[in-house]
Every structure is written in structure tokens, then in C-alpha cells.
Amino acid sequence: MAIPAASSAPLIEKHTIGYVPPEDRHGKVRDLFTLWFGGNIAPLPIVTGALGVQLFHLNLLWGIVAILVGHLVGGVLMALHSAQGPQMGIPQMIQSRAQFGSLGALLVVLIAGVMYIGFFASNIVLAGKSLHGVVDSVPVPVGIVIGAVGSGVIGIIGYRFIHVLNRIATWVLGIGIVVGFGYIFTHIQTDDFLTRGSFNLSGWLATVSLAALWQIAFAPYVSDYSRYLPADVKVSSTFWTTYLGSALGSSLAFIFGAVAVLATPVGMDTMDAVKLATGSIGPLMLVLFLLSVISHNALNLYGAVLSLITLVQTFAYRWIPTAKSRAVISIIVLLACCFAAVGASKDFIGHFVDMVLVLLVVLVPWTAINLIDFYAIHKGQYDIQSIFQVDGGIYGRYNPQALLAYAIGIAVQIPFMNTPLYVGPVSAHINGADLSWLVGLLVTSPLYFWLANRDTSYRRRMMGGKLASSL
Q1: What is the distance, to the nearest Å, from the Cα of residue 32 to the centroid of all Cα atoms in its chain?
Q2: pLDDT tier at 207 (50, 70, 90 boundaries)?
Q3: Which of 229, 328, 366, 394 has the maximum number of C-beta atoms within 10 A of its C-beta?
């Protein structure tokens, strides 16, 4: 059957968590580059990237090296998830039922939903502050509401509109950040731009981890934006366009934050430093970042809503969610986030970073299990019908092997953790560097592969998975 051109696809997305049939597939694989490049040039990654020199006291050279290493490593995992989208045609979170069972996947889906609600709320705070920085007469709370409404409209329209906006953003923000770099390097306001900070192993490892975790945080919803592509798109093409777009865009934003704070006096807020460092073009940069955060934040709202729909549909399995359902849930999430963000805007970003560090401890083993199951166990062949059955079909309500590997994957990270709730002894010994994500990946991946291959129902699931290709 011929795949319709993207121009024939409806502007407002009609699918939610359901399988996207071949006749509704559209788009080009290059759209993934623009989505993840344009979407990552935004205030939150700029603020996060500045931490390498602000908090971990690296100099510019070692800060840049740590940022690049982290994004290049973490981006591999993120892009491997993206490559699943065209083959599966369903969102990432509901696909987790094939690994964990229909009920076993609930914890991971809930965690992903909470994390993306946190991302959304944090970004509308940054949108509010950016708007206030551009127009002093607009209070931060009003800016928060404006940013939330803008993201909400984009998220409700859905998949196609998100891709269109990021194609535009790639050119506008790409040129903007290059111009911004040029201005900063020709108007440095400090004498210690190249000498402030120094190499320290714990700070370098912490910055690598921060960059890698930034990429891994996209894993639970990255394939949501590739699932509409035709099923015959090459896995390698999906991987590389996603990888290059995300790693390049994120690295530029992280490095921009580090450069801006080094070019301005010590102690400045990152976005204030950006405004000061970019001088006469500062207001324009803030406008671009404001538009970026509104556009990119639609992804967080979209992902959070799909996670919530997945949770509800697990129990209300006869419910067929529609575009209207997605819009209603989006509005509810938007209002709740506005209320929380306005009430705690002064220290919201700090609390958000703390929350993400905790949640990623439980998302990293999921990433390992999902990738091993998709690429090494089932080799991309799943029974889509079973995934939507209340009893999990051939995958059951629980998968003991996945849940055991998941629990062990969390446990082995504890000594290496550095979160507001707990600092592990290994992390404390290396001055706070958090390597829990790396340990979690290295232990969970081979453990799940071994457990899955010992499972007596493995061959039955493999045979059932072949049904997916006939849908």
C-alpha cells in the first residue's frame, strides 16, 4: 500500500497510544534531525550545561570535553530507542508492556509521566523568566502562564505540528546560537575566561554524567516522534538522524551555557549571564530562547499525556482514547503545572534537577531492559495485539525476568548514587560524582539477556512476536 505524503496528513493528530497503520504513516527521516537539534537549543540545557563550570569548577577546555563525552555516549542509547518507532508504530511507554507485562510496566510508565510533568513545569518557569527578561512589565507568573498556554496549544495539535515547528527552529536557533557564540567570544568581560576552574576528576565525571543523563532522559518518549515514519525506513537512518541532531543540539546548548558564565563575573544566574554576555543582541537571544522553550516544552506535555493515557488504558482497556481525550488531559496537566510553577517559581529549577536525578536511577535499568529485549531478544518483532490486551496476551501481566533484572539494576546503583535523598559511599569517596547510571547499564543489560534466554516461555513469545509484521 502506498504511503500518503506528509502534506495529506491531518494537522491535528488523531492517534494517541494506538498503533499507527501504514496508511497513516508520513514524514521524512530527516525530520528527526531537526526535531532533536532545534528542540535542544533551549534555556534548560543552557542552564544545565553551565553547571560544569559553576558547580563542578571545571575550566572551559575540560568542561567542553566532559559535555561532548557525555552527550556522545548518552545519545547512543537515546537514538537506539528512536529507531524502534517506525518498526513498532506505537509510543515507547506502551511498548514496555512487551518487556514487563501489562501490569509490570505500570511503575515505569508512572515514573516517566512524573518526570515529564516535571520537565514541563520547569520549562514554563524558564519561559516566564525569559519573557520577564525581555519585557520587564510582564511579571514572571504571567509569563509562566503564557509559556504554558503556548506549549499546550502545540502539544494538543500534536505530532505533525511539533515536527514543523522544529524544522523552522533548527535554522533560526542554529544561526542564532552561532551568532551568540561569535558575540561572546569577541566581547569577553572577564580576565579569567580560559583560566577559571581546573581539571578535577570528580567534577569531570559529574559533568559527563549530567550530559549523558540528559540524553537518557529522552529515552521513554523519543520513539513517540518516529512512530509515524513508514515502517520500511532503515533502522540505521533513524538512529543516525536522531543521534546527530540530539547530540549536536544538546552539546551546543550545554557549551553555550558554560561559555556565557565564564565570560561574565562569578556568581551570576545563568540566564542573566547569557543576557549580559550577549550584550546588544541579548534581548534577541532571549526572545529566541523563549520561543524555543515554548516549542520544545510541547514535547514534554505530549509525552506526559501519552504516559497518563497509557496508565488509564491499562485498567480501562475498553476505552479508546481519541484526540479529544488527549486535549482534555493536556489541559488538566497544564493547569496543575501552572499552579505548581507559579507557587514555587523561585526555587523550582533546583528542585526539578534534584527530582530528575532520583527518577533517572529507576529509568536507567528500564532503558537497558528495553534495548536488550528489542535488539537482542525479539529483534524488533512483537505481537502488537497482545500489547493492548488487558492480560498482556502472550506477554502476560508480569514478566518475572524483567522485574528481577529491573530491581537488581536499581539496587546496584545505590552505592554510586548522588541524589538529594541519598549519597552512596562510592560517590562520596569520589567527591560526589554520580556514576550510578553507568553501573546500572553495565549490570542490567547482560543480566536481563541471561534471564530472558533462560525463560521457558521465551520461544513462545518469539513466535507470537512474528504476528507484528502482519499488522
Answers
A1: 14
A2: very high
A3: 366
Q: So where are the chain's domains?
A: 25-346
Specify the pTM. Answer: 0.86
The C-alpha cell that represents 21 in the structure block: 497503520
Give the chain's end-to-end CA distance (angstroms, integer).
13
CATH architecture of 25-346: Orthogonal Bundle (1.10)
For residue 469, the 8-state DSSP code is G
What is the distance of C-alpha 451 from the center of its chain? 28
Helix (H, G, I), strand (E, B) or coil at 43: helix
Q: Return d(Cα 322, Cα 328) in angstroms, integer.
A: 10
Calpha distance 159→151 (Å, rounded): 13
DSSP string, 307-320: HHHHHHHHH-TT--
The Cα 240–Cα 260 span in angstroms is: 30
Span 416-460, pLDDT tens digits: 988 777 888 988 887 777 889 999 999 999 999 999 888 655 545
CA neighbor of 226 nearest in space, from 426, 28, 470: 28
Can you tell me the distance from the alpha carbon of 20 to that of 470, in angstroms, rounded to the nearest whole number?
13
Contact yes or no for 207/64 (Cβ under 8 A):
no
Structure-block grid coordinates of residue 146: 503564557
Any idea which residue has 515514519 for its cell?
A: 229
